[in-house]
Amino acid sequence: MTGRPISRRRTLKSAVGAAAALTAAATAGAPSAAASTAAGAGSDEKQAGKPTVVLVHGAFADAASWNPVTERLQHQGHQVIAAANPLRGLTHDADQVAARLAAVPGPVVLVGHSYGGAVITQAAATAPNVKALVYVAAFVPDTGEVLGELAARFPGSQLDAALTPVPVPGADGTSAIDLYIRPDRYREVFAQDVARPTTRVLAAGQRPLSASAFTDRVSGAAWHTVPSWTLISTQDRGIVPALQRFQAARARSRTIEVPSSHLPMHSRPDAVAALIRSAARTVHP
Using one digit for the tens of pLDDT, what is the confidence trace for 169-227? Predict the structure, then answer.
């Protein structure tokens, strides 16, 4: 928004005087170079010795879905990357996340929510700097498994019935299917303990998941060699708690249970951040 146009009758002298006054005020209010350097050094000191936390979102979302957790981790001095998950199929998505991990210097705590759990499971299998895995209301598949088949072992999810398939052009020119959650069912099946204004915004901005994500076969499971932590959402209507418990036990994961919907990052962000910090404390440079 702009202010009232400057009069053309303003003299050069008054313009120079105004600029000088503004410069002086800005200089007086700005920190010195030494102070700025000291503030930056303080931030660096808080992050020193801590692994980078990389957050991978799940289906129907983007990196902003991690915002409440990101803020808490940053406040605790962690370097955080909320990575983009393309949602174009497990192999493609895992390759993209693996490439992002390769660009991160030093050790990483890799965190996945929902479908993002499957993505980090495969991506970390080729990322030696990943030293801890954290699963949040997530899929934790094993090598050779297919997410659709894994989910079917434990019935009760309300998600399938709430999905809307949308035909779209595929990357290779053939037809494909994108999946969305019906906006009128979003809060009921995905986030029943999250404030309605928030769920309305999340439902409106959801990103589609390629249906191929549920038919792709997992090529590697990093939890066999990388220690893991799991948050089980006990009121989850998307990935049922029984499946979450089975996966956590199979991976020998350090587990907590939280009375949450499928979106604990919004309804229980303190618990999510605390679990991530627990994992991070075991990782040393």
Answer: 987 788 999 999 999 999 999 999 999 999 999 999 999 999 999 999 999 999 999 99
pLDDT digits (tens, 9 = 90+) for 41-92: 344 445 567 999 999 999 999 999 999 999 999 999 999 999 999 999 999 9
223 within some domain: yes
E strands, the chain, are 52-56, 80-83, 108-113, 130-136, 163-169, 175-181, 209-210, 228-233, 254-258
Domain count, the chain: 1
Question: Which two structure tokens, joined as six digits, stand for 49?
Answer: 């010795």
- Strand order from edge to edge, sheet including 163-169: 163-169, 175-181, 209-210
Q: Is 34 among the domain residues?
A: no
Please check whether residue 39 lies inside any domain of the structure.
no
Residue 118, domain member (yes or no): yes
Q: If pLDDT is split at 50, 70 and 90, which confidence band does 32 have?
A: very low
> What CATH number is associated with residue 122?
3.40.50.1820
Instruction: Please state, in angstroms and as integers, the Cα–Cα distance from residue 44 to each residue in 74, 121, 137, 277, 278, following that order.
Output: 12, 30, 32, 18, 21
Residue 81: CB partners within 8 Å, gap ≥ 6? 52, 53, 54, 55, 100, 104
Tokens (6 digits) for 3: 């202010």
The CB density around residue 280, as the number of other CB atoms within 10 Å, is: 23
The amino acid present at 138, given as its one-letter code, is: A
The CA distance from 62 to 157, in Å, is: 22
- pTM, two decimal places: 0.84
Residue 201 sits in which domain range? 50-280
Q: What are phi and psi of 134, to 5 degrees?
A: -125, 125
Average pLDDT for the chain = 87
